[in-house]
Design a protein that fits this description.
Elements lengths: L1 H16 L7 E4 L3 E3 L4 E7 L5 E8 L2 E9 L9 E4 L4 H4 L7 E9 L5 E12 L6 E6 L5 E2 L5 E7 L2 E6 L3 E7 L4 E8 L5 E8 L11 H11 L9 E3 L5 E8 L4 E10 L5 E11 L5 E3 L14 E7 L8 E11 L1 E6 L2 E2 L7 E8 L4 E11 L4 E10 L18
Length: about 400
Amino acid sequence: MTKKINLLIILLLVLNSCTNYDDLEIVVKSKSISLADQKIQIALVGKEKLDGEIRIKFDEDIIGKGDIESHLDSEYKDYELNFNLIESDLSSVKNGNKISLNLVFINEQEKVKIDKKVTLKVKFPPISKIKKITGKNFESIEINESDLQTQLWKNKIRMIEPKQIAESKTILNSSNEIFVAVEVDTLFEKHIIGRFPVSENSIYDDENLEDYLIKDLKESPEKIKSDYSEKLDNGNFIIKDTIKVSYSGNIGLYLINIDGNNNYFIQQIGILKGDDSSPVFNNRSWCSFNGDSEVQGQVCLDTKEFYGYNPHNVPFVGKAFGDISKIYIDKKSVPFKIGEEIYFKKRIYLDGGYNRISVKIVDKKGNITESFIPVTMERMNNTNIDIDNEINIDN
């Protein structure tokens, strides 16, 4: 009898020590979510005070989480949790559609206590649908409705990537101005037509598009405009501007809209090919090249041993790569073929001691690099020369 009473007491103690999680409820205060500012407002309501973590899941992927504490229904506290829906999540979502998320409460022992499914309306800010792109130095195109596909939010920047973009007809540099006109159906408060290196451009692999955009606008805030558009008879608007290239390699041409909440909407409208970099010179007879041969150039060149008196017949050995069009040594043009060994001799007057032989390299867009090859002439030793003055003449 005593054993039964003890077992009953232990059982009652265990039951009393267990928290009744059935009383817990996740209250969702948000009715919709904005993809410009991905947040959800919730509360955890229960009869007892509990600590834990709320995880936000989308298709089994955790897209956000945060610490939370339960409160009584009369005094519960709202929690605002951030989450991040990636590009693939948004590919099928349109403005006004609904999206389902799972809210999972987990206690400190990593044991799931509540798993609640919530459906929220998705709010997209307005977007300018591009109808037509015209301009100078690249092909004009008309954009179909179906060509605006992918959209991606990052911080307060929204990327919209169309399938079709206008492509440049020629390689440009900073001396070329490009006139661009874009027809859109929605006009924002502020807008910019800008150019930045695309992600495939290996010349600028240290920064991404957002970095270039932020840095460019900080350095040149006057680029943000609101007065260079006109309304058409069909109700659409024309946004136009004249820009310079300022980069080398593949350059994206972008329409950047800014709304009243300082959200940035970036749409690529074109691709340019720029050459704004001077050729590279290496003072050695051999070097390798792995750049963009259309817009980058490199020359390696050095002298080899030579003897004699002024003017010296100096041998040169090297190689040229990429978009090199002309090489000048000592202000005279020299022959070469791209990718093949350079070998020639040139008669040059040199002083005793240290000399500099001038080098000038020009690429196909007229970018110039000027340098020199150092040559040191050693002092010649005195040499005794014996001359036999005896001349024998046979009759």
